[in-house]
């Protein structure tokens, strides 16, 4: 188990920027790492990626110095376990709406005594042949893994005060598009009521001393969010490529 550099940065109140991608190609992860991004989130929800492919993607992340995270498609302890055992250093889970949902997520990510994660001779533990003894590894892994539930539903917002008290959570990632749809705004999050709701959520999370995360489509948007106290900013690989391509194509002068 390696130290999680983005968890260290977040604890020091420093922002981290990265991407989420549905690519199954480890080369994409390497490119993102060599570009200087902080984290690479494997999208296990909106993608065809399999748990068998995750291990090679994580290896590519480690080679290029980018922290591997994953959005796991469901709050399934066995599925979460497979991602973590492959070496992913934190998970973001969609569909978290209640305290019970969140407590189940924490238990799936953390080893005892903080959770119920099973221990095996797997890659994340250096196949239990590394320099750490079992007890030291378990404690270290619990310190290094990130727990980042997504807030993407009105019910989750309604239950936020109670969820902010759950131990073992590092922060919450706000998903503006899905949240807007759950509020009845199917054309996007640009409505005043959605913006007001997100603003209140940001302040509540900050007030609880936890990390706020959300999406940013550009560096300017990320800077504006960071100025508001949002420390975890993610774009999509497709979004970055589209922006870069549009800028490049200006060279045609059309």
Low-confidence stretches: none
Number of contiguous helices = 12
Number of strands: 8
Name the CATH architecture.
Alpha-Beta Barrel
Largest sheet descriptor? 8 strands, parallel, barrel
Helix content: 40-55%
Q: What gyration radius follows from the Cα positions, in whole Å?
A: 18 Å
Spatial ordering of strands, largest sheet: 1-2-3-4-5-6-7-8
CATH topology-level name? TIM Barrel
Domain tally: 1
Helix/strand-derived category reads alpha/beta
Keywords: Lyase, Metal-binding
InterPro entries: Aldolase/citrate-lyase_domain, HpcH-HpaI_aldolase, Pyrv/PenolPyrv_kinase-like_dom, Pyrv_kinase-like_dom_sf
GO molecular function, one term: metal ion binding
Protein name: Host specificity protein
Any overview of this molecule?
- Helices cover 45% and strands 16% of the residues.
- With 254 residues, it is α/β, with parallel strands linked by helices.
- The chain has a single domain, classed as TIM Barrel (Alpha-Beta Barrel), CATH 3.20.20.60.
- Strands 1-2-3-4-5-6-7-8 form an eight-stranded parallel β-barrel, surrounded by eight helices.
- The longest helix is centred in the C-terminal third of the chain and has 16 residues, at 192-207.
- The protein is globular.
- The relative contact order is 0.13.
Secondary-structure blueprint:
Elements: H1 5-11, E1 16-21, H2 26-34, E2 39-43, H3 51-64, E3 67-71, H4 77-85, E4 90-93, H5 99-109, H6 134-144, E5 146-151, H7 154-158, H8 160-163, E6 171-174, H9 176-182, H10 192-207, E7 211-215, H11 219-227, E8 232-236, H12 237-249
Parallel strand pairs: 1-2, 1-8, 2-3, 3-4, 4-5, 5-6, 6-7, 7-8
Helix pairs in contact: 2-3, 4-5
